[in-house]
Amino acid sequence: MLSKDTFDILPLIGRQAAGKSEIIDYLKRFNNQQSKIPMGASMLNLKPLISHPDPAKSYSEALQRAAALQERDGDDVNPVGRTFLLTHGFPAHRAVVWLHGYTNCPEQFRQLAQLCFDQGANVLVPRFPHHGLKDRMTGETALLTAEELASVAGEAMDIARGLGQQVVVGGLSMGGVVTGWLAQQRDDIDLALLMAPAFGFKAIPVSFTRLVAGLVLSFPNFFTWWDPKKKADISPSYAYPRHASRGLGHFLRLSFATQEMARQHKPAARRLSVLTNVNDMAVNDHMITRVVKLWQAQGASVQTRQFSADLKLDHDFIDPGSSKQRIDLSYPVIMEMLK
C-alpha cells in the first residue's frame, strides 16, 4: 500500500509557493516506492504522439479548413477566446501559427499576430481544446489530453501550408512545448520559435520531472490557483485563474515524447530558435537546455536568446493583458527572431 507521502506530494507539485527543498524531500521519499505503481515511458504512453501531416493543397482549401476549425468554438467559448485567422485574401510569402499557453487562449497572441499580419504574413491562432471558455472557473482543463494538443497543432500546421510559401510556428510555455513537438517531426516548418517552453518546471528538479508527470497522470485530478493569494482575482480576464494537474501531466507527455524523438533523430524543422527569460519563475531552464543539447547533438543549429534579469520580465512576456507585461521590450526581440 502506498504511504500518505504519496498523496501529500500532489498539492505541492502545483503549488508555486512550495519551497523547492520541501518538494524534493517528498519526491525522494516517493521515489523509494515508485516501483509499486506503473511509471516511466509505458505509463506516459509516448508511442501514439506521432504527427500525421495532411497539408492543405491550396489557399482556398486552407480557408475551408480554417473555417471548420473555427466552427468548433461553440457558444460556451469567450468571444475573445476563439480561433482566429488574419489573412490578406491571398497566399502570403509567410504564414505564421501562434500556439497559446496553458489556461490561456488565442487572445494571448492577438497583438503579436497583428504585428505579423501588418508585416505581410497570414496568421492563424488556434484555440486548444478546453481553453478560452466563458466560465473561467471551468474544470475543462482536467480533460485535456496530449493527443488533443498534437491534433490541433498538426491541423493548424496543415492549414498554414496553404496560407503561405513559408511557415513559421511559435508558442509560449505549453505552446512552446507543442511547437517543439511539431519541429521534431515536420520538415515543412521553415522556422520554429519556442518561447519559455514548459518542458519542465522550476520547482521540480530535472531528475524528478518524469516521475512528477507520472504522478499527476496516475492520481485523481486536482486544481491549483496560479496565485493562491489573489485566487480568481487575477488578469487577464479571459485566462483561467487555476490549472488542472491532469492537463499539466498531458502536456508533459508531449515534452517527453519530443525528448525521446530528439534522442533518435535530428529535428525536421529547417530552423529552430529558443527564447527564454532569466526571471522566469515557472519553467525549468535546465530542461530547456537539455532539449537544445539533444537537438545540437543530432546536428541541428539552434539559435538561443535570453531576456536578461534587469528587464524583470514575467514568464508570460506575450500577453498584453498580463498585469506584469512589458511587450515594449519583448515584442521587438521576438519580431527580430522571426526574420
* CATH architectural arrangement: 3-Layer(aba) Sandwich
Shape descriptor reads globular
Number of strands: 9
CATH fold node name: Rossmann fold
Number of helices: 11
Concise account of the structure shown:
Helices cover 39% and strands 14% of the residues. The chain contains 11 helices and 9 strands. The longest helix is centred in the last third of the chain and has 20 residues, at 245-264.
Note down, in words, how this protein is organized.
This protein is an alpha/beta fold. It has one domain: Alpha/Beta hydrolase fold, catalytic domain (Rossmann fold, 3-Layer(aba) Sandwich), CATH 3.40.50.1820. It is built from 11 helices and 9 strands. A 7-stranded mixed beta sheet has the order 1-3-2-4-5-8-9, sandwiched between helices. Strands 6-7 form a two-stranded antiparallel ribbon. The longest helix is centred in the C-terminal third of the chain and has 20 residues. The radius of gyration is 19 Å and the shape is globular. The relative contact order is 0.15. The N terminus is likely disordered.
